[in-house]
Amino acid sequence: RAKESGESHPAFFEASMGETAAESFRIERELRAGIPRGELRLFLQPQFSASGDMVGAEALVRWQHPQRGLVAPGVFVPIAEESDLIVELGIWVMNEACRLIAVAARQGLPLALSVNISPRHFRRPEFNSWVREVLDRTGAEPARLTLEITEGLIIDNVSDVVAKMNELSALGIRFSIDDFGTGYSSLAYLKRLPIDELKIDKTFVQDAPHDPSDAALVETILAVARQLQLKVVAEGVETAEQAEFLNSRGKVVHQGYLFGRPAPADEWMARWTAKAGADA
Ligand code: C2E
Ligand code: MG
Ligand code: MG
Ligand code: MG
What we know:
It comes from Aromatoleum tolulyticum. This is PAS domain S-box-containing protein/diguanylate cyclase (GGDEF) domain-containing protein. Helix content is 51%, strand content 19%. It is an alpha/beta fold. Strands 1, 2, 3, 4, 5, 6, 7, 8, 9 and 10 form a ten-stranded mixed sheet that branches.
């Protein structure tokens, strides 16, 4: 077929398409088997206020594959999101994150964690009761948990989403809009939903010091956040110049390689508890 249409490298095209589909299928199958075998790892990346206090951390999943080594979420999360596998993954991450919040609290460390929530998982009818169950079982304080959602979730079935978010918000759980500014939703939802935080996408953060339109976007997000009294987290802060740009424009929490890379949760926990002990 490709030959008839005059395509010059039909074999290459078809082979690479085939490889991609087969590869995704293999990743899905191996991940499905790997989760119950304990192959997921929780990494944390700290977030800092402008004055340098650590105010929280984001939970970021990794996959310790027996042959491929440590696999980044960009490789397997999009594949997991095409099926209920993302729910299995989300359950594991939430259990781990809440367990860490509770462990930290028992050690006198008021750790707050942000967890990425997939729309498919959030839309499950039992999502709220499941979150309550995890909090009860682990003893994690709801106010120490932030759920990161994306604009895509909000676009469809708004009233159902509002009701669910309100219920969780009433427990003390916080909500953040991840990759803010990259979606297509209207700003009106910010007033209707119990949102506490906006996360500026790293593409805007990284280009803002030199690109006037990215600078304007960041300034607009900060203005909206000020008006609605929302916290702002900038993700992907890599340079002092980016950090200074943000600090000169408003009140921003920084998350990025400049301040700390994602690292295994136990490593960060050991460091933070040692520091909390030294400060006490
Ligand atoms: P995200 O939630 O927007 O997470 C931020 C990403 O930016 C992370 O990539 C983080 O490592 C990266 N990052 C942080 N600081 C910097 C920086 O200074 N420079 C650069 N270049 N990158 C930085 P990561 O860990 O590879 O995760 C990618 C995406 O995978 C996440 O984007 C999120 O959408 C998804 N993801 C990760 N963990 C989970 C999870 O547990 N559940 C779900 N549903 N999705 C997850
Ligand atoms: Mg996130
Ligand atoms: Mg993000
Ligand atoms: Mg993202």
